[in-house]
Amino acid sequence: MKTDFYTYAYLRKDGTPYYVGKGRGDRAFEKWGRRVKAPPKERILFLKKNLTEKEAFKHEIYMIAVFGRKDNGTGILWNFTDGGEGVSNPSAETREKIIKANKGKIMSPESRRKMSEAKLGKGRDNYSTNSIEAMKKANRKSVEITFPSRRVGVFSTAALTALYLGVSGAMIGKYVRGEINRFNEQGYSARYLPKGAR
Asked: Is 74's pLDDT higher than 50?
């Protein structure tokens, strides 16, 4: 059993944590592909080291519960979930599922060029005022995501939900309405929260 996992915190200039995570190797120092920006190295604090992945997830969940999250009004962290999500070393079966779920998503440079050309002229000017207002309202709604692990995350806007899931903002409404089966097949469910429900 591997015990090279750790938990870490990103600290503000005043020394208070703004993000708690779990990782291994250089994960804590990675700058790209992150939802929350990493601080300078001197403000990255390792909380616990030499953990199994299970122990690291458990400690991440505990620390997020201790400090609370800004997005749901419980504390000071910019974490968007209660922790314990993700897989660092997926099994062959999990990898196969991921490959199948993403099959056909890689486009050739020629396909990308054609899509770009097709989109020219479809900017804001071609949307009606009502359509623009509807999109703005949808983006302001809080979104509740239930993960395959049955943990629940609440995001204050559709844009934050899209950022967390790594999809475009336009996809969130389709996820919530159940128009994208792949999302549900992967064990996720989503719903807009009534105003003031967070």
From this structure: yes
Decide if 103 is inside a domain. no
Looking at 24, 42, 67, the residue that finishes a domain is 67
Count of domains observed in the chain: 2
Instruction: Say if CB 19 and CB 64 are below 8 A apart.
Output: no
Query: Given a cut of 50, is residue 124 above it in pLDDT?
Result: no
Q: Is residue 177 part of a domain?
A: yes
pLDDT tens digit sequence for 55-67: 999 999 999 988 9
Closest CA to 78 of 37, 124, 130: 37
Instruction: Tell me if 21 is assigned to some domain.
Output: yes
Read off the pLDDT band of 168 (50, 70, 90).
Answer: low
The DSSP string of the chain is ----EEEEEEE-TTS-EEEEEEEETTGGG--SS-SS----GGGEEEEEEEE-HHHHHHHHHHHHHHH-BTTTTSSSB--SS-S----SS--HHHHHHHHHHTTT-PPPHHHHHHHHHHHTT-SGGGS-HHHHHHHHHHHHS-EEEE-TTS-EEEESSHHHHHHHHTS-HHHHHHHHTT--HHHHHTT-EEEEPPTT--
Q: Which of 67, 89, 116 is the last residue of a domain?
A: 67
CATH number where 154 lies = 1.10.10.10
User: Which structural domain range is residue 10 located in?
Assistant: 5-67
